[in-house]
């Protein structure tokens, strides 16, 4: 048994160093730090060295003249090519400035109060701010997380972080928010290798995008109408980084969820506008259902191949006919292509439904409602691949109202009334990842959240504002061809005949017995050789 008297206290021997050795160690340490700083900031070092030399050589004029010249060159650069000016000149300088004087100064306090600092071994450990890049609208902070942290912890604190740095909006990305540039030409190989290094996967790092200037506060003008729409990138909205948000419409259905007066109309009309070139050429056919009696869409009637706005019977017929078109294409294209490419002979059919709940939940006639639900279910589950797409808007995304919610691969959430509705529209966890669609301010009409291709984090965008005058102009200039409604005439076209197939070799049928036993059974009754 151990008693208190048996215990030994072991203390490490203290190493007593002479004072001069400690002083040399400290000097070496500071020298090394200074050298390391110079290596990490070569531009600043060169500027200081050149500035000092010029000052010694020419006095004050040696500093003032180059500064004025640099400012004039910078102004000229900005005037001639603003985007490259931001990328290579103003962005890095502003980023550095804001890193030192905005983010570093508040870092410890912000991390601690946003619950992102950890305590380990009686010490507070903070996430490390590695870099800040700025552009016209955003600051992108590269942050090394504390060991054991996940990007979700930062995503939960997104709003707190934005306010901690004096802004209203921020977003947290687990991977770099920008895409690697497409390189071509002589240096493509070398630059591609550099990009691979820059865009490598860094699981210990998160990217906090702080919205410095909210580019979505101002109205977004309608986008140009392309004569041939690019169905893989239709520009519909402005992003926070001032770039266009483009919809990939091929082989997808689109669901737009938003409370009343949130601007669903501007999403639908922005889409109609960028498709207008295809509508007039016959590459796109819009079949529009407006259960609100034509309030929203009657003004653009000439653009639509089919339009139903008064009778629910007619709306059900329209959907049934869309299913017929889909079936015909399925039969014709089976085995030929995997995804339908729109052509003049085989146009893209886009069924636009404003306020879908009127068809799926509020319709009194049960039989009609069932008929509509059947057609919608078929279109949503099978139509995308054969170019019969559904774009639907609705106010209430609950399951009882829209049972087919999960069949829409592309979702857009405008302003919503409840936090729970955000995940219903955009998918589970979208609100935690920063889609605060239930906290839209009053001015934010046509502002919404979308999921960008390839990133799980939602992006905030504002759709272009299409006024009634724009709609009238569009209808006058890009009306659908006279025979646009006649797509059903194509149904019933000869379908490909069944290809001739060689008969399959016949399998030997019989009891499941081992070959040795079968041989015995197969012997001729007169004891001959096995067959
Ligand atoms: N992108 C936009 N930019 C600025 N204002 C917009 C935008 N979209 C819509 N608005 C304005 O917001 C208001 C509501 O728009 P809209 O009618 O399109 O909303 P909605 O969601 O379709 O409404 P409802 O559910 O009643 O049909 C209108 O006054 C419109 O002018």
From TrEMBL:
Pfam families: FtsK_SpoIIIE. The chain crosses the membrane at residues 15-32, 38-55, 62-79, 372-394. ATP binds at residues 258-265. Keywords: ATP-binding, Membrane, Nucleotide-binding, Transmembrane, Transmembrane helix. Signal peptide: none annotated. It comes from the Bacteria. Residues 521-531 have a biased composition (Basic and acidic residues). The keyword Cell inner membrane does not apply. Residues 493-531 are annotated as: Disordered. Residues 233-423 form the FtsK domain. InterPro entries: FtsK/SpoIIIE/SftA, FtsK_dom, P-loop_NTPase. This is FtsK domain-containing protein. It comes from Micromonospora saelicesensis.
């Amino acid at each position: 048994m151990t008693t208190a008297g048996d215990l030994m206290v072991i203390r490490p021997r203290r190493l007593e160093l002479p004072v001069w050795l400690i002083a040399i160690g400290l000097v070496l340490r500071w020298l090394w730090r200074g050298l390391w700083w110079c290596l990490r900031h070569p531009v600043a070092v060169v500027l200081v060295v050149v500035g000092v030399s010029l000052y010694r050589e020419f006095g004050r004029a040696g500093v003032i003249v180059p500064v004025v010249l640099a400012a004039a060159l910078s102004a000229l650069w900005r005037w001639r090519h603003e985007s490259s000016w931001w990328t290579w000149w103003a962005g890095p300088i502003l980023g550095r400035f804001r890193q030192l004087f905005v983010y570093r100064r508040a870092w410890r306090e912000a991390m601690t109060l946003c619950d992102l600092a950890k305590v380990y071994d009686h010490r507070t450990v903070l996430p490390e701010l590695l870099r800040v890049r700025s552009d016209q609208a955003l600051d992108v902070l590269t942050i090394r997380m504390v060991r054991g942290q996940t990007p979700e912890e930062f995503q939960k604190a997104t709003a707190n972080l934005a306010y901690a740095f004096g802004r209203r909006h921020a977003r947290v990305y687990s991977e770099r928010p920008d895409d690697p540039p497409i390189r071509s030409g002589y240096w493509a190989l070398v630059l591609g290798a550099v990009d691979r290094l820059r865009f490598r996967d860094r699981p210990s790092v998160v990217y906090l995008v702080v919205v410095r200037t909210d580019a979505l506060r101002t109205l977004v003008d309608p986008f140009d109408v392309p004569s041939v729409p690019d169905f893989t990138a239709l520009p519909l909205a402005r992003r926070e980084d001032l770039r266009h948000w483009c919809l990939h419409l091929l082989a997808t259905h689109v669901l737009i969820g938003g409370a009343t007066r949130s601007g669903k109309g501007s999403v639908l009309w922005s889409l109609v506008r960028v498709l207008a070139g295809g509508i007039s050429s016959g590459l796109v056919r819009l079949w529009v259902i407006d259960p609100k009696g034509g309030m929203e869409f009657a003004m653009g009637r000439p653009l639509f191949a089919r339009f139903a706005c008064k009778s629910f019977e007619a709306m059900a017929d329209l959907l049934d006919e869309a299913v017929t078109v889909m079936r015909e294409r399925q039969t014709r294209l089976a085995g030929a292509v995997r995804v339908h490419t729109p052509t003049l002979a085989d146009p893209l059919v886009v069924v636009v439904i404003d306020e879908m709940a009127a068809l799926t939940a509020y319709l009194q006639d049960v039989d009609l409602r069932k008929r509509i639900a059947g057609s919608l279910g078929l279109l949503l589950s099978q139509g995308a691949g054969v170019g019969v797409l559904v774009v639907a808007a609705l106010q209430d995304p609950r399951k009882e109202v829209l049972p087919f919610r999960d069949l829409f691969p592309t979702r857009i959430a405008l302003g919503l009334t409840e936090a729970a509705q955000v995940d219903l529209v955009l998918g589970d966890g979208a609100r935690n990842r920063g889609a605060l669609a239930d906290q839209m301010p009053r001015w934010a009409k046509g502002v919404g959240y979308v999921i960008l291709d390839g990133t799980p984090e939602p992006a905030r965008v504002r759709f272009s504002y299409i006024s009634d005058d724009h709609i009238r102009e569009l209808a006058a200039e890009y009306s659908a061809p006279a025979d646009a409604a006649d797509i059903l005439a194509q149904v019933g076209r000869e379908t490909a005949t069944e290809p001739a197939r060689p008969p399959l070799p016949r399998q030997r049928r019989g009891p499941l017995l081992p070959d040795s036993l079968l041989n015995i059974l197969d012997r001729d009754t007169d004891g001959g050789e096995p067959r």
